[in-house]
Design brief:
Elements: E1 3-5, H1 14-23, E2 28-35, H2 43-49, E3 65-70, H3 74-85, E4 91-96, H4 101-105, H5 116-129, E5 136-140, H6 150-160, E6 164-168, H7 182-191, E7 196-199, H8 205-215, E8 219-222, H9 224-228, H10 232-236, H11 246-266, H12 272-283, H13 288-297, H14 303-312
Parallel strand pairs: 1-2, 1-8, 2-3, 3-4, 4-5, 5-6, 6-7, 7-8
Amino acid sequence: MKLILAPMEGLADDVLRGVLTRAGGYDWCVTEFVRITDTVLPHRCYTRLSPELANGARTEAGTPVRVQLLGNDPDMLAANAAHLARLRPFGIDLNFGCPTPLVNRHRGGAALLNEPELLHRIAAAVRAAVPADMPVTAKMRLGLDDTSKAIACALALESGGVNELVVHARTKADGYKPLARWEWVARIREVVKLPLIANGEVWTVADWHAIRAATGCDDVMLGRGAVADPLLARRIRGDVEAEPSAADWRMIEAMLADFWTRVQRKVLPAQSPGRLKQWLGLMQRRYPQAEQLFRRLREARQGPELSAILQREGVIAESREAA
């Protein structure tokens, strides 16, 4: 079985990808999307989003990285994929799952799920444009407003030549509501022959067992659950206990310190507190210690102010503070 770290727009950038994959347990991961419109983007657009391309398309921990593209023009997506392929990513992923209104208004992401024939043309164009040994994968939801075209979309992507397909078990209209329609992934599993990866509402080891049983998929993509519990992949593999513990929190503190150092190097001092609070906000679901730390940091607005609090709380030592 494989565990894959999901692309999460506005959340899992190269900094968080690096920290989470260093924690261990992932077979590969996917970047946030690069939006393709009417031009071939320069390589710097891809290396800025995925600095891992300069490291053999792997995170510092050695986890392979696939770069995700989003768009609706088969020819432009193919041209960009061919250009990107020169940087030798571990693979190219196609986004048919983003539910964001701004993206959907411009016919991107999940907005294309009413057009299976377009999905096929995009997949076929990209597959033909890149080397045969480079994986082309896709991530889709179950549909726009309903599931009536879910199977047609999956078959269209399969016939278009994608090597693996991730299915997020919700429609675009479902957003991120807690109820995921795992049974629909099972229906798709019955008709496609390509490797299928289940995704959606996996927060715990029990959820992982449940989604595999419900869908028949061996492979699972972890999204927000992996952010809420950075040790989730290792829990699933049996490397640590199935539920968070006080000992686990000490490991999490080391990850927070690493993340804080790296995020300060990347963003402005006024932006860095929001990044750490965003992560802690999700971790509150699994760690009471995260909730306590979040409350202490809530009012901090600048990087140095937040660093001082983290030092007082023993999360970072003074020597670890970013310059």
